[in-house]
Amino acid sequence: MKIPLIFTLHLISGPVGCFDVIGFPGGEVRITCKYQNSAGGQKSFCKLRTLQECGNSITSQRGQFNTGVHEGRFSLVDNPVGALTATIRHLSLQDSGLYRCEEAGGWSYDVNLRVNEDPCCLRLKTVTGYLGETVTISCSYPEELQNKTKFFFKQYGQYYTEVIRSSDSQTGRFSISEDRSSKVVSVRISDVREEDGGVYSCAVSAGGEPVSYYTRYTEIQLQVSVKIPTSTAQYGFYIIITVSVCVGLLLIGGLTLSFYKLGCTRTQEISTTKGLIHSRCNADL
């Protein structure tokens, strides 16, 4: 009877469930653990060495909400509505493993982070858009995230702002579509403006209660340029050709004139030489 009792006590006092989180090398995951009854203890997020021992840990400041704690690639924010959010940036394969978000003397949840290499999720792409026209930026995603909500974020300094999500077909000049057969999500930006330029990120939201997460992967650098009209480009091409022909003719003419002058000089030299010889011959006679 002692063994079942110990096992039951572990279930009551230990972590409730284990939740899977997927990330990609070079990307970012933002894990949110929701809680209802806080014991007023210090909250933390750590990578587990064993089921009972934390390794690297980041801890929130007790009683201070919405104040982020940053340690290298990790950050932790406690929200007064009952949500502890941990962020891991610049993911690597070594970040895979079991993590725990918890409150001392209270609740705790275990999170299994899997950092997967996938050719679909390249880190950086560059797309060019032209002022006043429409540009499309696209991201592929792995099959395991097919049924998840897709997001596009735009980077502003160290922060990312949501632009549009797959549950909204259109937001202002931005519209989103998804091709599930090819596992591609695309965003169209109409009437491109200069301020649209910058870095966009593809992201997926997954999970639910009490643990949910965002995973950001592919980044797209949108460069905004002014498109040169075709007629102008052709006109410029003709000007270049005309100038090139004129320069070529001038060079040919210059070379011809040089050879002509050289020939005249040689002729004069020969005539002068013949005249001198003729004069000497007459003198001898």
Walk me through the topology.
Elements: H1 2-13, E1 18-23, E2 28-34, E3 43-50, E4 53-59, E5 69-71, E6 74-79, E7 83-88, E8 97-103, E9 108-115, E10 124-130, E11 135-140, E12 149-156, E13 159-165, E14 170-171, E15 174-179, E16 184-189, E17 198-207, E18 211-225, H2 230-284
Parallel strand pairs: 1-9, 10-18
Antiparallel strand pairs: 2-7, 2-18, 3-4, 3-8, 5-6, 6-7, 8-9, 11-16, 12-13, 12-17, 14-15, 15-16, 17-18
Please give a quick description of this structure.
It contains two helices and 18 strands. The chain is α+β, with helices and mostly antiparallel strands and 285 residues long. The longest helix has 55 residues, at 230-284.
Descriptive account of the structure:
The protein has 285 residues and is of the alpha+beta class. The N and C termini lie far apart (152 Å). The chain is built from two helices and 18 strands. The strands form three sheets. Strands 2, 5, 6, 7, 10, 12, 13, 17 and 18 form a nine-stranded mixed beta sheet that branches. The chain has a five-stranded mixed beta sheet with strand order 1-9-8-3-4, with no helix packed on it. The chain has a four-stranded antiparallel beta sheet with strand order 11-16-15-14, with no helix packed on it. The protein has helices at 2-13, 230-284; strands spanning 18-23, 28-34, 43-50, 53-59, 69-71, 74-79, 83-88, 97-103, 108-115, 124-130, 135-140, 149-156, 159-165, 170-171, 174-179, 184-189, 198-207, 211-225. It is elongated and about 95 Å long.
